[in-house]
Amino acid sequence: MFSPLTSTISRSGERVMRSIVSAAASSISITRPDDFHLHLRDGAGLRSVAPLSADVFKRAVIMPNLKHPVVRTAQALDYKRSIMDALPKHTDFEPLMTLYLTDKTAPEEVQAAKDAGVVAFKLYPAGATTNSDSGVTDVNRCLPTLNAMAEAGVLLLVHGEVTSPEVDIFDREMVFIETVLQPLLEQLPNLKVVLEHITTQHAVSFVESTAANVAASITPQHMLLNRNALFQGGLQPHAYCLPVLKRERHRQAVFNAATSGNPKFFLGTDSAPHARETKEASCGCAGIFSAPIALQLYAQLFEEAGRLGNLEGFSSYHGADFYGLPRNTDKVELIREPWQVPGCYPYASTSVVPLFAEKKLSWKIAK
Ligand SMILES: NC(=O)N[C@@H](CC(=O)O)C(=O)O
Ligand SMILES: [Zn+2]
Ligand SMILES: [Zn+2]
């Protein structure tokens, strides 16, 4: 279903840290990773997928775009309790909660959220993606709240796409950066921003060239696939996510950024489960589910780059450092043992098709 990774990646400048991994190591041990962009949904869907993330990741930044968006601190605390209730009793997984920014979010909510341990607010331009109808119609309406965030050191996470129908869908990230993000950072130069799930050379360059308070998360699908994957052999709904996959040179830019070792880029799977029948539909949902295979696929992609030694920074250090969180101290071990990704996973009363379904991964997580 998905195109295999094209082997066009240059292997020059290979910098494998020998202390962690030797040429064709049969296992690697890395500090336990965190997922800085995760959709867990609620209800029965939550109970299906949450344990799969908690099996691998120590912490995850939980996206607030539920059907009833998580807009108030009290809701985030309720949601956190239902996440913990969906996990085995003695789990050490820690959900890092976020709030959904709206035109009406009061500046006072910022301190309340921070005091309650909420780590960030999420900016969804209204209409940009799944469950974003209550999102922001104009960032200028949110300036007092964004200013409060800058002052309190609370992060802004951004779905970076404009929504105007005149803008070509493949240009929406670039236009957002130019017309919304850049001007916003000129007004609030200290605001800590994560540009989520970046997909273009423009986003990579922007993040590389701005100050240290701007970083980006990178998904496995945007490292792996270009937009041909959407149409390979017919319409491929399970390759559809937002921001939509881009052309090959953008995939390469994102791939190179992720594997470069630059601390501004870190792991955020954007694992976004949708029931199979809601994707295989006349109007299919946007979102790719990757929780149970993401770390293994990142490892494969870093190895493809000849940069397996940079995996640990990307998956376990850069995000924690940017968020001001302590690095995890426990480890996960990946073993070289090919296995086939299942065609689907149970999801509530139905199923969800993962990224890389029925394909072979070369790394497995040791139990
Ligand atoms: N990435 C997606 O295509 N979908 C996400 C929303 C988002 O992260 O934009 C979802 O919640 O399904
Ligand atoms: Zn998004
Ligand atoms: Zn997302």
From TrEMBL:
<comment type="similarity">
    <text>Belongs to the metallo-dependent hydrolases superfamily. DHOase family. Class II DHOase subfamily.</text>
</comment>
<keyword id="KW-0479">Metal-binding</keyword>
<keyword id="KW-0378">Hydrolase</keyword>
<keyword id="KW-0665">Pyrimidine biosynthesis</keyword>
<dbReference type="Pfam" id="PF01979">
    <property type="entry name" value="Amidohydro_1"/>
</dbReference>
<dbReference type="InterPro" id="IPR004721">
    <property type="entry name" value="DHOdimr"/>
</dbReference>
<dbReference type="InterPro" id="IPR032466">
    <property type="entry name" value="Metal_Hydrolase"/>
</dbReference>
<protein>
    <recommendedName>
        <fullName>dihydroorotase</fullName>
        <ecNumber>3.5.2.3</ecNumber>
    </recommendedName>
</protein>
<dbReference type="InterPro" id="IPR006680">
    <property type="entry name" value="Amidohydro-rel"/>
</dbReference>
<comment type="pathway">
    <text>Pyrimidine metabolism; UMP biosynthesis via de novo pathway; (S)-dihydroorotate from bicarbonate: step 3/3.</text>
</comment>
<keyword id="KW-0862">Zinc</keyword>
<dbReference type="InterPro" id="IPR002195">
    <property type="entry name" value="Dihydroorotase_CS"/>
</dbReference>
<feature type="domain" description="Amidohydrolase-related">
    <location>
        <begin position="35"/>
        <end position="334"/>
    </location>
</feature>
